[in-house]
Amino acid sequence: MSVRDGEGAIISNDSADRQFGSHSGLAIVLPHVFKSFRREPALALTVAYLLVALAGIYYDYAYYQKGFGIPILSLAQIGDYLVAGLQQPVAIALMLLTFPLCWLMDKINARSRRRQAVQRDALRAVPDPSRWQAWRLRWLEWHLRQMWGLYIAYLLFVFVYGWVFVGVYARYQVNVVKRGEGAQVTARLNGVAGDLRPSTGGTWTWLGAISNYVFVYDAVAGQATVMPVNAIASLQPLPRARSPVPLAPKP
Questions:
Q1: What are the residue ranges spanned by the domains of the chain?
Q2: pTM of the model
Q3: So what's the architecture of 183-237 in CATH?
């Protein structure tokens, strides 16, 4: 059985096997990716920028919008997502873990494809194959030369993995704030003499900030507040309460 190459020319089974002989999708595509990065270093920086921005988008959405009901996607600018990714190195680390996991998936897939190649060779050796064997042989020969589905699966895995695990980390941070373990701050607005206090009379818990807004949280009321940066005169962090250190007994 013959197949056609990328230019439409007919090639034999032996030539096709040599051309598509690697059962590892990463072994086929990574040399081309690295060659492109060496030829265009700006492309590597762009990909890194997109990964950091993606981690920032995932984290901001899970932390602000899902955790505290703040419509962060409407308030943030594009640069805010890159800053969010850089401010959360754990989120970037979780995103980068997708690459060794993709490598592991590729190893498992390559092992499965090698078994299928053995089945294909065995079917080729059958002198008078049945209709089922002929159909199976045609499917194996087509499947073993298709890698696009594997590449799409890797891309989907990067997005889904990043969404799930960065979201888990963001929910952990939300729970830390809601337990009252976040940093406490006082806020003073322009033209106002005293500090701005929550309606419950407590203190603000610091959530974060973007280019045009600052986010604080009233842990007693369970309510987040969005403050425009231009309206804030000052933000003062409060010292964390420390347990008293017992004095050493005098001799």
A1: 3-176, 183-237
A2: 0.65
A3: Roll (2.30)
